[in-house]
C-alpha cells in the first residue's frame, strides 16, 4: 500500500507542479510581451514551459523520470544548451531508485517469496513431521504445490489489490492494467518456481532452512544487484558517448566566438539550413536581432553531431540494457513496468524530441518577422506556437 501511495504522491506532485508552472508561465510571458517594442526582444525575454505529464499509470513505476528531466523553460536561444543544462540530481538516490510499486515487485517481492517458501519442506523435517505428512498425503507433490500456491496467491493478491484499486481511481486503461498484472504474476511465478524447485532438490534435502534461505538469497543478490551493476559498467565500456557538458560547451563556444567573427561567417553557416533568407542578410548596424538568432542556430549546428551521437548512444545503451535484463528477472520486470507506464528511456527521448520540435516551431514563427523587419504587433504574438499542440 505504501509503495502505491508513494508513487501516486510523486505523480500527483509532478502534475501539480506542471499545472502551477503553466499558469505562471502564461502570466509571465504576457507581462513580458506587453513591455516589448520589437520581435527580437520579445523572443529573447519570453520563456516557454515544456513538460512531460506523467501517464495515468506512472505511479506504478516512475522509471527514468528520476533521471531525465520532465520539464524545461526554453526560449529562442540555442536549444542544445537549454536541453542539457539541467538541475543535477542525487546520483546515489538515482541508483537506488524510488520506492514505488515497481521497486516493491522487482526487488522486495522475491524476498517475500523466499521467506514464504524456503522452508516449505525443511521446516517439516526439522519438526519431525515430514514422514508423517508424506505418508498421509494422497499425492506427495500435490501437498507441497497446494501449500506453495496458497502462500504465493495470498502474496499476489495482497500486492495487486492496492494497485488495481488505484489504477481504477486514476482511470488507467484496461490494457495497461492487464499488462502490469501479467508482469507481476510472471515475476511472482518465476521466484515461486525457483524457491519450490530448489527446496525440493537433492541438494536441499541435506540442508537446514537457514542454509536453503542463504542459497536463495545469494541468487537474489546476484540477479537483483550484481547483474544490473556489472551490466551498467559493461555497457559504459561498450558504448562511448559524449557528455551533455561537451555538447553545451561546444554550442556555447560557437555562440561566443560569433561575436568576434565577420558577419559573413555566421550567414554562410546559417544559410546552409535556411537558404530562403539569403536576400535578407544585409546588416545596417553592428547588431541586429536576425544576426543574433542566426548565430544561436549556428551554435546548435556546430553541436549537432555531438548531440546526435549522444542520443544514439543513449538509445544503444537502453537496447543493450534490455538484452542484459534477460539474465536479471528483477531488471526485466522494472523495464517492462516502466515501458507500460511510459516512464522509460524511450519516453524521455520522445519528450526531448517534442522540445526540439517546439523550439524549431518558435524559430519558424520568429524568423519571417525578424528577417522582413516587420513592425512589432502584440496581436501577432497570439499566434505563438503552444507546446500543448506538440
From TrEMBL:
- The residues that cross the membrane are 101-120, 148-174, 180-200, 212-231
- Know the name of this protein? DUF3526 domain-containing protein
Top-down, what is the taxonomic lineage of the species of origin? Bacteria, Pseudomonadati, Pseudomonadota, Gammaproteobacteria, Alteromonadales
Keyword Transmembrane helix appears in the UniProt entry = yes
Q: Which species is the source of this protein?
A: Echinimonas agarilytica
List UniProt keywords, sorted A-Z. Answer: Membrane, Transmembrane, Transmembrane helix
Pfam families membership? DUF3526
Amino acid at each position: 500500500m505504501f509503495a502505491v501511495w508513494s508513487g501516486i504522491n510523486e505523480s500527483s506532485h509532478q502534475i501539480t507542479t506542471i499545472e502551477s508552472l503553466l499558469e505562471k508561465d502564461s502570466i509571465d510571458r504576457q507581462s513580458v510581451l506587453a513591455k516589448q517594442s520589437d520581435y527580437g526582444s520579445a523572443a529573447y525575454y519570453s520563456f516557454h514551459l515544456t513538460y512531460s505529464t506523467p501517464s495515468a499509470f506512472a505511479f506504478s513505476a516512475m522509471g527514468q523520470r528520476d533521471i531525465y528531466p520532465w520539464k524545461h523553460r526554453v526560449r529562442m536561444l540555442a536549444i542544445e544548451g537549454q536541453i542539457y543544462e539541467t538541475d543535477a540530481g542525487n546520483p546515489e538516490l538515482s541508483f537506488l531508485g524510488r520506492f514505488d510499486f515497481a521497486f516493491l515487485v522487482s526487488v522486495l517481492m522475491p524476498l517475500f517469496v523466499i521467506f514464504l517458501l524456503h522452508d516449505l519442506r525443511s521446516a517439516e523435517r526439522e519438526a519431525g513431521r515430514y514422514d508423517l505428512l508424506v505418508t498421509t498425503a494422497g499425492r506427495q507433490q500435490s501437498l507441497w504445490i497446494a501449500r506453495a500456491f496458497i502462500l504465493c496467491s495470498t502474496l499476489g493478491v495482497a500486492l495487486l489489490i492496492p494497485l488495481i484499486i488505484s489504477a481504477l481511481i486514476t482511470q488507467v486503461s484496461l490494457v495497461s492494467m492487464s499488462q502490469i498484472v501479467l508482469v507481476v504474476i510472471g515475476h511472482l511465478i518465476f521466484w515461486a518456481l525457483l524457491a519450490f524447485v530448489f527446496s525440493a532438490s537433492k541438494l536441499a534435502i541435506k540442508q537446514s532452512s537457514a542454509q536453503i534461505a542463504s542459497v536463495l538469497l545469494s541468487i537474489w543478490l546476484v540477479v537483483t544487484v550484481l547483474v544490473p551493476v556489472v551490466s551498467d559498467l559493461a555497457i559504459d565500456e561498450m558504448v562511448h558517448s559524449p557528455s551533455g557538458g561537451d555538447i553545451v560547451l561546444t554550442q556555447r563556444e560557437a555562440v561566443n566566438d560569433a561575436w568576434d567573427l565577420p558577419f559573413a561567417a555566421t550567414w554562410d553557416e546559417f544559410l546552409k539550413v535556411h537558404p530562403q533568407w539569403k536576400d535578407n542578410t544585409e546588416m545596417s548596424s553592428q547588431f541586429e536581432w536576425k544576426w543574433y538568432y542566426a548565430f544561436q542556430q549556428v551554435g546548435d549546428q556546430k553541436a549537432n553531431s555531438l548531440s546526435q551521437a549522444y542520443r544514439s548512444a543513449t538509445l544503444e545503451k537502453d537496447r543493450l540494457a534490455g538484452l542484459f535484463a534477460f539474465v536479471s528477472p528483477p531488471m526485466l520486470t522494472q523495464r517492462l513496468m516502466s515501458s507500460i507506464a511510459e516512464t522509460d528511456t524511450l519516453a524521455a527521448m520522445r519528450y526531448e524530441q517534442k522540445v526540439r520540435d517546439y523550439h524549431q516551431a518558435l524559430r519558424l514563427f520568429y524568423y519571417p518577422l525578424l528577417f522582413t523587419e516587420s513592425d512589432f504587433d502584440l496581436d501577432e504574438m497570439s499566434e505563438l506556437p503552444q507546446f500543448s499542440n506538440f
